[in-house]
Amino acid sequence: MTRPSAAIAEPGDEGPPLLHVDGDGIAQLTLRRPRHLNRLHREDLLALQQHLGTLQAGRHARVLVLTGLGRAFCAGYHLGELGAGADSASADPRLFEHVVDRLEALPLPTIARLNGGVYGGATDLALACDFRIGVEGMELRMPAARLGLHFYPGGMQRYVSRLGLGTAKRLFLCADSVPATELLRLGYLDRCVAAGGLDEAVHELAATLCRNAPLAVQGMKLSLNDLARDPGELSALREREAACAASSDLREGLAAFAERREPRFCGR
Question: 26-32 and 63-68 as β-strands: parallel, antiparallel, unpaired?
Fold first, then answer.
């Protein structure tokens, strides 16, 4: 199984994010503006939207790794595009929010490979992923309060549901830099490793996710997200539960367990 790595994209070829899917079903989306800490321009968000649509429609990918080139994961939205004009945020003021929501709604399990600092809206981009693996020495900063900006509701809801109200208030209202060790304690990071061990840690988790039954993994991911938003709404969960109960994957999983062998899942 090929290990996910930011080397898939060429560092000298800056531009919109690139999508690569290897033969083992591991997809990687790489942010490619390292000279500007991978800040996101409108064209980058449109490219991300298109790539997520491709992954949603396809069947080959089993897990998505989101990462960036250079010394930072992402600096968030390009603040220079907050003004007027056809290429500015005013052309679609909720584009960033829509892209992050689409990432969260992707059935594939997702891993944020945090190769460096995470700033502004990128903190929510990573939070929309199912898992976050960061490197020692990285930091997070949500500067909305220092900019006079009120963050969009979907992102604030994600902060509260994932990290708790107290942590969300601290990160939004204080706007301080938070080091990796503290991010691990707060639950923002699932793991924190030395920079040289990042690819191995991401590969290990991606391989684990790929080994499990895709229909069950994808269904339970979406159901857990639904429960985080509205614990009282169970109809969609019941539909996914029934689909897994009638699946070939369940029959294969039970047979493999009985025969003491590795299962061969097909996602149906």
Answer: parallel
**SS3 of 178, please?**
strand
Contact 128, 162 (CB under 8 A): no
What single-letter DSSP state applies at residue 137?
A: T
Domain coordinates in residue numbering, the chain = 6-210, 213-259
Fold of 6-210: 2-enoyl-CoA Hydratase; Chain A, domain 1 (3.90.226)
Q: Which has the closest alpha carbon to 67: 142, 150, 148, 134? A: 134
CA distances from 91 to 53, 83, 88, 177, 206 (A): 21, 10, 6, 31, 37
Q: Which phi-psi region, left, alpha or beta, contains residue 148 (left: φ > 0; alpha: ψ -120 to 50)?
A: left
State the pTM of this model: 0.86
Q: Is the pLDDT of residue 6 over 90?
A: no
> What is the distance between the alpha carbons of residues 24 and 40, in angstroms, rounded to a whole number?
29
The 10s digit of each residue's pLDDT in 95-143 is 999 999 999 999 999 999 999 999 999 999 999 999 999 999 999 999 9
